[in-house]
Amino acid sequence: MIYSFVESNVVTAATDNDDVVVTLVVGSGIAITHPADVTMSPNMGMSSNSSIGSSTWTVISNNVNGYSLAVKASASPALVSAGGSFADYTETSNGVPESWSVESGNKEFGFSAFGTHVNTTTWGTGSSCGSGGSPSGTLKYVGFETTDQIIAQNGNATAGTDTTVCYAAAQNGVYAPSGTYTATITATATEL
Amino acid sequence: MKQQSIKKIVSLVVFLSAILISNQAFAYQKIKLDMPAQNDFVVEPGKTEIFLNPGESVIKNITITNRINKTVKFKLTTEDMVGTTDANVPIKLLGDETGPYSLKNFIQPEITEFSLELGEKITIPITVTIPTDAEPRGYYGALIVSNEPEVFSEEQSKDAEGKARLVSRIGSLFFLRINGEGKESGSLEDFKILGPQKAFYENNPKGFEILYKNDGNVHLVPYGKIIIRNMLGKDVKMLPVDAYFSLPNSIRYREVQWGEGTGLGRYTANLSLYKGYGNENVEASVAFWVIPWKILVATFVGLVILISIIYYILTRFEIKRK
Question: What's the complex ipTM?
């Protein structure tokens, strides 16, 4: 009792707070696959008038604003051999993808695309490149250019999205000279 | 004895100088990581923003990691880029052309060709130098990382055989502004609901579209938020509009995703967007109705059936107390 009279003040331990801010910076990056080179099939000749092929690129990006994927050819016309070339596909409305059709007397090479981030209004609703050498009837085709043409785009990060490019070549009323025709196609992915 | 000491000192100085010079000449670094093959290669960062005074230079690093299950030869090149007035084409790489905001000749990677095995990561210094007489505006370009295409064999087909040789590239974008200079000018062109416009929506809309126009000569970085309020004025959702770039003389389309769940009644989506310069935000709003009519119809039909059953029971049976 004497103690409590003498020591009348309540004693408490002093406290203090100190905030520490922890920061983590996550940088953005982007990845693109490298698909194998393509041999179109079947070979064209006197009894086969069209040929198709495909390649699939996968883009991964943690960029919050997404990515863009574009393709281009190294030359115009794109598909050439030592003995000749296929004209780049000619659209009814220049640069606007359309249902595949090659006019009589022509041989042409073009492409289409499909995938989760491919605009179906522009490129069609198909999910395969066709069969038996015939291009898909539900995709829309356009000729390659030597400058980038965007085929896929997304406004969010992606853990891996496939975009398939469908190649198509056809001859109508003419025969392409025999030989191996090659096109160098470049796909470029960029962050947005 | 004295001559031998001098010789030793000179040899040591020459040896140390050689090490120092060799380190300065090859500042890129290559390391090997243990990683599974994923048939791709990674470039980091995907975008670099730089602010410089005329005549200054800066060194930025870029990292390339090979995840392809073979040794790949890579090449570094530079291209200019521009924005476009097509809202669905945010950027366009110009290839061999020179752009109006050309940066490609000012970007110098330390090396331009190298090979990487699976799992190897290389960090390469990139020097960006601006001339002393640089115009007061923005400069935009990309460092292109590409793999070398394979070489086809020379055999010729008897038929007409088509082949496509493929090259994969990544463009790491560079945005440069001269400090304090440049015409900053941007405007919100449109803010609307993503997809077809409807009288009412069965579920919450899938998202919103923002159309932003940059008519200045420097890039801008707008960002903001969308607050969705119900008809009682209560905030029900906040959607962030993450910062994104808008190049000069371009229109950029930006999509903000939503689409979670459903609601009932009239809502307004209120956009508050910082234009990327100045101190003001630009505001816009769009109203929409959410009427989950299938649920409402099913509920109504259920109630009608229940009431009918109750009415039938009450009118056909008499309940008496014992």
Answer: 0.87
